[in-house]
Design a protein that fits this description.
Elements (H helix, E strand, L loop, with lengths): L1 H18 L14 H17 L4 H22 L13 H27 L6 H9 L10 H14 L1 H17 L1 H14 L6 E4 L4 E3 L2 E3 L4 E4 L1 H4 L3 H4 L9 H8 L1
Antiparallel strand pairs: 1-4, 2-3
């Protein structure tokens, strides 16, 4: 599901660029609340990967589930009175109503896919294929699938967005590490694999004589994966190598 996640990320990058009303200059600056933006991004990714073929409904489920979670948190922070969770208080009624709404929306998507026989290749599709498995250890009931979907929505949202927020803050404060990460990423996944030039005059590079008119090819991909230069782990992402090379 990596491609779907990357597509969601590129989509929010595009939105950020549209929000930037400043002219493109070297000192181009814009302000945004990253926690809020990462909450949007993770919500988009979860809705896409969980209900890719039913994205709009997935977003609707997500919004209802977030409201349900907030109501549950409010309930949990109140003074606990044994048995109160079973009383028809306004808050409990809201929680019960939202829980039914989320379950019914997920069940509606499930029923549609079961009727069409097209389960899809998203998270829900994977679980529906497990539901019809003949292996009793892998088989899932519809109620289990609904609960798994609910759990996937909540467990991956806040935790991931908070992680992204703090990561961004730390990389912003320690821009030397940001540069190391960027350099190592470009080494592994450069935008071009090679480039060529033609010598416009006779020249000498090191001990090599290069006559005028000679075509010179720089095999960047080969150079950036040369174990003699980068070590035996040349194919691994390791920003620390940039630091050790600079020290040498």
């Amino acid at each position: 599901m990596t491609k779907s996640m990357v597509d969601c990320t590129l989509r929010i990058f595009k939105e950020w660029r549209k929000q930037n009303k400043y002219e493109e200059t070297e000192q181009n600056v814009m302000e945004m609340e990253m926690k809020k933006e990462f909450y949007r991004l993770t919500a988009d990714i979860i809705a896409t990967t969980a209900f890719g073929s039913s994205y709009a409904e997935g977003n609707e489920i997500f919004r209802a589930h977030v409201e349900l979670r907030n109501c549950c948190v409010t309930s949990a922070t109140k003074v606990f009175i044994p048995g109160k969770q079973y009383l028809p208080t306004p808050l409990n009624l809201r929680i019960w109503k939202l829980d039914r709404k989320v379950k019914n929306m997920i069940r509606r998507i499930i029923d549609t896919r079961l009727k069409s026989k097209n389960y899809g290749d998203d998270l829900l599709g994977i679980m529906l294929n497990a539901a019809i498995s003949e292996d009793p250890e892998k088989k899932l009931s519809i109620d289990e699938i609904i609960e798994e979907c609910k759990n996937f929505f909540i467990s991956g949202h806040g935790t991931t967005s908070i992680l992204l927020t703090w990561t961004t803050m730390l990389l912003s404060l320690h821009q030397d590490w940001q540069e190391k990460h960027r350099e190592e990423s470009l080494r592994l996944y450069g935008p071009i694999i090679q480039m060529s030039r033609v010598a416009t005059q006779d020249m000498k590079v090191g001990h090599v004589e290069i006559p005028k008119g000679t075509s010179i090819i720089f095999p960047l991909l080969k150079m950036h994966s040369d174990r003699a230069v980068w070590g035996d782990d040349a194919d691994k992402f390791n920003p620390l190598r940039i630091m050790s090379i600079c020290a040498c």
